Amino acid sequence: xxxxxxxxxxxxxxxxxxxxxxxxxxxxxxxxxxxxxxxxxxxxxxxxxxxxxxxxxxxxxxxxxxxxxxxxxxxxxxxxxxxxxxxxxxxxxxxxxxxxxxxxxxxxxxxxxxxxxxxxxxxxxxxxxxxxxxxxxxxxxxxxxxxxxxxxxxxxxxxxxxxxxxxxxxxxxxxxxxxxxxxxxxxxxxxxxxxxxxxxxxxxxxxxxx
Length: 210
What we know:
Layout: E1 2-7, E2 14-18, E3 24-33, E4 47-48, E5 62-65, E6 68-71, E7 90-91, E8 95-96, E9 123-127, H1 128-133, E10 141-147, E11 150-160, E12 167-169, H2 170-176, E13 187-201
Parallel strand pairs: 3-12, 9-11
Antiparallel strand pairs: 1-2, 2-3, 3-13, 4-8, 5-6, 7-8, 9-12, 10-11, 10-13
């Protein structure tokens, strides 16, 4: 057993471990990630120009200014598709398309369908601490989340800051019984078991080296 690191800035201490078979695991809270929910699978959209998507524009670093959605925070430019003016591009239906770290092979970076749909695909978000600490490829690898007697298989589709832990997609939260609204859902209790298998691709995905 190897300890990869400990994250403490979430209000509790989360120790990330790797067992002798290469499985990485930790117990953490559950923030809801809506990234990639662009309506590509027929589900609700995360971000919309009228701010009536499943996620609040402000949580994506955006704001409405003079009737136009802008990047209020510089980091917003890292999570949405941008137009020629370096502001969020608006797609048909008022959709502002958000990105995930994983992009489906063969699809353009400017295609909203290139990203993993948080609404319909169970995925987890991992901190860079894990990505940098294991030899196996993490992006696209097999994962799983468990709460009580409910588990769902996932893919690692997004990454977070080095010191942020405990984040899962809308679909993953729904599958294990966690309130799944990106605006009001999630759990602050460190009660979800996260597991991932670097170097082993999740079904339907390919490993993508960082």
